[in-house]
């Protein structure tokens, strides 16, 4: 009889362990928690992506005040960046690199213009026809500087209405694309607009592959905010290359002569 009772107790414990305290159930509980955590994380990521996409398409989350500043204030801001890039220069040398407010184009901003997106900004804000195709290969009338490859791709997509058989909208960034491939592409392609990261644009201008003979507009994509809450002027790797471009010929001379204007978007 005692042996039977012991057997009953062992059997009861075995059954209970499977239902309540067994190792398998502890593992299953942890696994369920992990699944819930992963679902919440993915949901947050998707929400952040949707917000970023909304900024790309309608500009409703634009909080950067730079485009609404006067030309004088924009010039002052750029001059401060110039001093950072050329911190080892003397005052006399820095004087030669000063930018005038005449280099900048003041846009008459309205909420309607912001919400219509970049194509409307180019046509209504700058009052010109972006469909114009310069005759020379690799020579756009507008260069748009963006902070990262993904942003360049999004901007290029939004400007596909200006892509024709006669002229392309160039997408220029270093990620996955070799410099020599871009040089080859520009040597045989007419452009309306070039969109790119400052580093890649600098290299292409320096190699005389991206020509500025017909350039009229330098557009800085300053209002966009990425998922890490960074903007163009928050990333030294972006604006330092831009500063080097506009403080050296040929762009330096073209800005002084009034042939090119800098525009904050």
From TrEMBL:
<protein>
    <submittedName>
        <fullName>Uncharacterized protein</fullName>
    </submittedName>
</protein>
<dbReference type="InterPro" id="IPR032704">
    <property type="entry name" value="Cms1"/>
</dbReference>
<dbReference type="GO" id="GO:0030686">
    <property type="term" value="C:90S preribosome"/>
</dbReference>
<dbReference type="Pfam" id="PF14617">
    <property type="entry name" value="CMS1"/>
</dbReference>
<dbReference type="InterPro" id="IPR027417">
    <property type="entry name" value="P-loop_NTPase"/>
</dbReference>
<dbReference type="GO" id="GO:0005634">
    <property type="term" value="C:nucleus"/>
</dbReference>
